[in-house]
Design brief:
74 residues
Length: 74
């Protein structure tokens, strides 16, 4: 009448988890680190004397993100 809440043991083998080596992760970590630094530059410093792109287009695109992260811009 009453059914057990414990599932029946499975006959499938449990897959073994293999660790990922640091040598395999390092290129991806470097890539995303550089990408984040570029993004941080464009959000935080792309205006005025250090501008790489002329005009106000980049500033307008990242304006709200700049204030959200605490960077003053005006």
């Amino acid at each position: 009448m009453a059914q057990s809440a414990v599932p029946a043991p499975s006959s499938q083998p449990v897959p073994e988890i293999t660790p990922i080596s640091l040598k395999a992760i390092a290129p991806w970590a470097l890539f995303f680190g550089v990408l984040m630094l570029i993004l941080l530059y464009f959000v935080g410093a792309e205006q005025g004397a250090t501008a790489v792109v002329s005009g106000e287009n980049v500033h307008e695109w990242v304006h709200d993100g700049r204030h959200l992260l605490g960077f003053p811009c005006h």
